[in-house]
Amino acid sequence: MFRDRNLVIATKHRKELVIAPILEKELGVKCILSLGLDTDELGTFTGEIEREDDPITTARKKCLKAMELTNSDLAIASEGSFGPHPTLFFVNADDEFLLFIDKKNNLEIIARELTTETNFKGAPINSEGHLLEFAKAVSFPSHGIIIRDSQEDFKEIEKGITDWGLLKNKFDYFLKKYNQVYLETDMRALYNPSRMKVIETATHKLVEKINKLCPICKTPGFSITDRKKGLPCSQCNFPTKSTLYAIYSCKKCNYSIQDKFPNKKLTEDPMFCDICNP
């Protein structure tokens, strides 16, 4: 279905470095770029342009624009969100979505990778000692840093700093001019190897999904669309919030099956039971 077709990667931050080799090897596509695409128009990490849509809608807009610019019918885009983990409080996370669109066959396949393996961080810095501590904590200079006077201010921002001398000079400049400095990690993929690894993992997940064909119509993307809770507790046998079965569905013919005990566990540990461990 995909072999020898052009696939446009909708990015301006060099995500093709990890996405293209996987898709070309596993799907047989020929990856191309849309050089005129400015994905920053849909929102920037630093907030000068606010992202108006959810990650999937934003990724879809990237794909559609890239396909329009390159006259392609196959595209892929990623969109990441950074902040507190949804269940692990006080721990930052990278929530990465990857969207694959095939207009020719009316397909959309989504992969998601949620991980705490991120250096996402921001803090006000008022001394050279704190500057060095922050830089070390975010794996500088292999990972880029953004500097500005405050978290909410957009009037003057320096991005993509990966040099110690430049970092020190910019820090002194902002401190002298504004009497305050705010540092944050540059989460754009080309300045953040940690995020690149997450995108790479998401791409492998996407390929795995694409290669799962519907048993009835053989359409790619036969994957989990819902999960039902109720795995019984091993101690009291009361239904827990853990997954009892997963539902696999085809987006084209709507065929679905239930996979009971998808995590290969027949019961749940009592520590996760609302009765035994309220």
* Structural class determined from secondary elements: alpha+beta
Note the total helix count.
Answer: 5
CATH topology of the largest domain: Maf protein
| End-to-end gap | 51 Å
Globally, the shape reads: flat
**Strand numbers in spatial order across the main sheet:** 2-1-3-4-5
CATH architecture type of the largest domain: Alpha-Beta Complex
Number of separate strands: 12
Domain module tally: 3
Tell me what the structure shows.
α1 (16-27) packs parallel to α5. The chain folds into three domains: 6-118, Alpha-Beta Complex (Maf protein); 122-186; 224-272, no CATH class. It has helices at residues 16-27, 55-70, 128-137, 164-178, 193-210, and strands at residues 6-9, 30-33, 74-84, 92-102, 107-115, 122-125, 145-148, 157-161, 181-185, 223-229, 243-249, 256-260. The protein contains five helices and twelve strands. 26% of the residues lie in helices and 27% in strands.
